[in-house]
């Protein structure tokens, strides 16, 4: 026991130990040890260790306070920190303090950083432009706008390649080129229809349709009468049947 107490006493007397409220008496362990064993010169140890235990508990409370402060000031630096650690080290506290100091120094150096009113005005302007009613809808609408922008960019790139336009050609040039292409296609279709009908005059097409409407109903009635009269059902049998009758 005396050996352990002597080791603890040497730790308390080391230069790295913090200032003690309760100082032990001078002299070696052997000089302070009485023969009857009633006093061993370590009466200060329980008080000192108790004081250190209180300081360690206070260290945990200090860590929690710094943790809350860090969450407010630099939340992006506290993703790896945990509040339920069993033991808190001074290095943990120093890490939080350094992160806060670094952020403070960066803010002082970067005087052009937007202020809170400026950021609020930017968010409000975005809500008005894209019809967002609440702050919760800002991020989804941003993602939607980004997706639509990507689709439009890909479509424009494809149109530039298909139409053999320069990549720097503005949107108006692309629209005009597509319009001219559509007009040319429509002209070709009209010309093909005219060639198919054997005329290039729309009035001639109308006359042909009117002649068809005048001729086809009587012709159809005549054919039906012949089929009934000759007692046949196929048009191809009309001519052979008439020849036989002749």
Automatic annotation (TrEMBL):
Signal peptide start and end residues: none
Entry keyword Cytoplasm: yes
InterPro entries the record matches: CEP70 (IPR037692), TPR_rpt (IPR019734)
One biological process term in Gene Ontology: regulation of microtubule cytoskeleton organization
Repeat region (TPR), residues: 136-169
Subcellular location: Cytoplasm, Cytoskeleton, Microtubule organizing center, Centrosome
Keywords: Coiled coil, Cytoplasm, Cytoskeleton, TPR repeat
Domain of life of the organism encoding this protein: Eukaryota
GO cellular component terms listed in the entry, alphabetical order: centrosome
GO molecular function: gamma-tubulin binding
PANTHER family linked to this entry: CENTROSOMAL PROTEIN OF 70 KDA
Function statement: Plays a role in the organization of both preexisting and nascent microtubules in interphase cells. During mitosis, required for the organization and orientation of the mitotic spindle.
Assembly and interaction partners: Directly interacts with tubulin-gamma; this interaction determines centrosomal localization.
Protein name from the UniProt record: Centrosomal protein of 70 kDa
């Amino acid at each position: 026991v005396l050996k352990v107490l002597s080791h603890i006493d040497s730790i308390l007397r080391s230069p790295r130990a913090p200032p003690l409220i309760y100082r032990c008496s001078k002299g070696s362990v052997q000089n302070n040890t009485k023969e009857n064993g009633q006093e061993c010169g370590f009466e200060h140890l329980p008080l000192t260790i108790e004081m250190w235990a209180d300081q360690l508990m206070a260290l945990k409370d200090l860590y929690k306070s710094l943790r809350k402060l860090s969450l407010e000031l630099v939340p992006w630096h506290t993703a790896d920190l945990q509040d339920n650690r069993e033991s808190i080290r001074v290095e943990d506290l120093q890490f939080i303090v350094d992160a806060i100091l670094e952020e403070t120094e960066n803010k002082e150096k970067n005087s052009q950083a937007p202020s809170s009113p400026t950021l609020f005005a930017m968010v409000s302007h975005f809500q008005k432009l894209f019809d967002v009613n609440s702050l919760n809808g800002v991020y989804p609408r941003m993602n939607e706008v980004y997706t639509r922008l990507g689709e439009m960019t890909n479509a424009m790139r494809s149109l530039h390649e298909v139409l053999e336009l320069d990549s720097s050609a503005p949107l108006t040039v692309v629209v005009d080129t597509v319009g001219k292409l559509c007009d040319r296609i429509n002209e070709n279709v009209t010309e093909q229809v005219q060639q198919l009908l054997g005329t290039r005059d729309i009035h001639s097409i109308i006359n042909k349709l009117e002649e068809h409407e005048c001729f086809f109903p009587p012709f159809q009635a005549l054919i039906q009468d012949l089929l009934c009269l000759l007692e046949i059902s196929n048009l191809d049998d009309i001519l052979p049947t008439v020849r036989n009758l002749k």
